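Need tokens for this chain, all 202 residues.
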Amino acid sequence: MHVAQARSNLLRLLPVVIFVVIAGFFAMALRSGDPSLLPSTLVGKPVPQTTFPPVEGLEQAQGTPEAGFTSADLAKGKISVVNYWASWCVPCVDEHPMLEQLKAASGVDIYGINYKDQPAAARRFLGRYGNPFTAVGTDADGRAAIDWGVYGTPETFIVNGKGDVIYKHVGPITPASLETKLLPIIAKAKAEASSPGASPKA
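Here are the structure tokens for all 202 residues:
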């Protein structure tokens, strides 16, 4: 009976322990000034099964309508980057040139997810600052962001060719984080994908 009581008490305490651990990560990230330290349960797991419809009225460079994308597009054998952004997000403006540099330096496809935004505002944003995205989808009500574990914008995910998340960056990409985190992680993932016996390749 004492064993059963102790087990019951332990189960009741488990949610509290989990909360304290997560809160500790948040506090550490806030004290360090590095939001990328926030934990992600997605790392090492497949991207959520989601469909991102196109931003209304957005056209690709060739003049064809933007079609949006799905999670299946992230599992076609190539390393890719997924970026959550919004026109009303001030840090997204600062980050935008870094996305251009990331694409130029790594050669990977970048998929943009426009978060809780108005289509006209999203189109103006990309028209003003440029469109580094291979495809742009929208998460108008923020429901997909819950599945992706998004804390806010901007957030960036690196996805391997199998569609598994291998890294999550919370907050805007900076020159330092681009050079010391994202580009090395992408380079390592490409090397692993191209090693003998590895599949799929980047």
